[in-house]
Amino acid sequence: MPSWFTRTAVACAALFIAALVFVALAPYEKDMGLVQKIFYFHTPSAWMFLTAGVVCGISSARYLANHSPKLDRLAWASAELLVLFGAIALVTGPLWARKTWGVWWQWDVRLTSSLLGWMIGVAYLLVRRYAGPGSDKLAAGLALFGMANVPFIYISVNYWRTIHPPTSVVPKLPLSFGVPFYLSVTAFTLLFVMLLRLRVHLEEQRARVDSLYLSLDE
Amino acid sequence: MSVLQTIWLIVRKDLTIETRSGEIAFTTLFFAISCVLAFAFALVREGKPPEDGGAGVLWIAIMFSGNLALGRTFERERQSETLRALLLAPASRPAIYLGKLLGLMALLTAAELLLVPLVAYFFQAPMFRHPFWLTLIVVAGTMGFASVGTLFAAMLVRARSRDMLLPVLLYPLTFPVIMAGVRGTTALLQPEVDYALVRFWVQLLISFDAVFITLALWTFESLMTDEPR
Amino acid sequence: MAASSVGLSAALFVVMSIGSPAAGAPAAVQVLPPPLMLPVRAELQSQPSPSAQKPPEEFEAISEIPPDERMPAAPMVVAAYAFVMLALFAYLLSLARRLGAVKQDISRLESELKRNGRT
């Protein structure tokens, strides 16, 4: 693990513990009760999922334009994080929904397009792993098309009637909910950045292995 | 050579090969028929199809047939190394893409001419009540599917595991198109048609088409500049 | 390039004109029977599904949970938080393992390179 890891990991863990404490102390929501507390981890995960999608899409687009390996590594790293945080959001969401809506899943626009965005991320990782030479360009093209999905996921809820809460919920959060929520968001953001840097670092080390093999052959 | 001329040459080339050998045309058409039959055997109980099932079956069959046709079209290019020849020729990349796209659209449209009556019969779906709207939905949806498919099939020509990866790439990306197609077709098949709803899904399909084709035109150049293997 | 930009603007125009909730669009959600609505189990039928049709516009705070809300939510909350922790931990572990393997490769290759350099 690189040198900066321990400090950042400790800071991250501290933030998460603080967030959990505040989540436990937060009041219960009038209509949803205890199960609403899933919100404090579900929504930041979903935000990280969407952020990873944007990062992957933009770095893929730029990679197609100038072929810099740094951008390729960033794209791959953010795709992995997209799958990770997307999985978290897609599991915690139904656990919340089972209690609030009475069903595990509904084929409405937000849930369906989120699931799709996640599957595109999985497809990206499959392509990187199995497509052989040229898989970097292929995956970049896939990410570009996949990114067109992301705005739909976020705004869809405001334009199609759906049982998923609209985006107006977050700006209107009362303080007693806002504090644990934004603490959670900060924790997740730091975690996201840390994992992204770590994953890019892994790719850089792999590239070093490749160049070492090449110089061995000389 | 102008873009339109290039496009026309490529379309003519593909159609000529098809009319002479019929390789992809016959196999795709036969596959489309067996697909619908398989759905019919699986879903139709004692002559009663599932309610509103026709739209879904139609679009799934289009998706599967399209996947097959795409794979075969570019496999043929790969085997004869004609893709490298195409790329070396003084033809603009977007024109090559559009030419392949139109060729594929022609093939899929032929398959749909067969699919729609079959689905209408087996699933008792009143497909021919509103032919104009149905044609619009089917063409717009097929165009959306084909635009993404042509791009990725062309890119996958040089990749490993290309047969497996084409559906892996294609289905998640084109799912919104298929979904809009299914919803639009279902709305059209209702006894009381809500034209505002149908118009909505058609508008959505057309905007998907425009976005996908534009994106494909932008990226085709950079995605195809790899060394042919 | 210009032609495709025109195409993109046309697309955006079409999308904008779809924009605000089309009267028919919400009905589309209910047109097909939702295939994954699993039946609610008998014991959880004790409270009605609260405000299931209209999503809450804001969260409102209360200080104590009403009595009929208490038990069934706890397993969900615990499962959710446990999953989050497990997933993050598993990913970190996977990263650490992969990094370890790569670091091993690097040190092996570097020592081989040094040896070859000497001969």
Question: Can you describe this structure?
Answer:
- The complex is a heterotrimer of chains A (218), B (229) and C (119).
- In chain A, 78% of the residues lie in helices and 1% in strands.
- Chain A has helices at residues 5-25, 39-66, 69-100, 109-130, 135-147, 149-159, 175-217, and one strand at residues 28-29.
- Chain A is built from seven helices and one strand; from the N terminus they run H-E-H-H-H-H-H-H.
- Chain A starts with a helix and ends with a helix.
- Chain A has one domain.
- The longest helix of chain B is centred in the middle third of the chain and has 30 residues, at 93-122.
- Chain B starts with a helix and ends in a 6-residue tail after the last helix.
- By secondary structure, chain C is an all-alpha fold.
- Chain C is rod-shaped.
- Classes of the chains: A mainly alpha (218), B mainly alpha (229), C mainly alpha (119).
- Chains in contact: A-B, A-C, B-C.
- At the A-C interface, strand 1, helix 2, helix 3 and helix 7 of A face helix 2, strand 1 and helix 3 of C.
SS summary, helix count of chain C: 3
Unreliable segments of chain B (pLDDT under 50, ≥5 consecutive)?
A: none
- DSSP helix fraction of chain B: over 70%
Strand content of chain C: under 5%
> Quick check: average pLDDT of chain B?
85
- Which structural class do you get from the secondary structure elements of chain C? mainly alpha
Indicate how many domains the architecture of chain B comprises: 1
**Mean pLDDT over all positions of chain C:** 64
Secondary structure: number of strands of chain B: 0
Give the radius of gyration of chain B: 18 Å
Main interface by residue count = A-C, 65 and 60 residues
Q: In one word, what is the shape of chain B?
A: globular
Overall geometric form of chain C: rod-shaped
Q: Please count the beta strands of chain C (DSSP E, at least 2 residues each).
A: 1
Characterize the largest beta sheet of chain B: strand count, sense, and whether it forms a barrel.
Answer: none
- How many strands, which pairing sense, and closed or not: the largest β-sheet of chain C? none
SSE pattern of chain B: HHHHHHHH
Distance between the termini of chain C: 57 Å
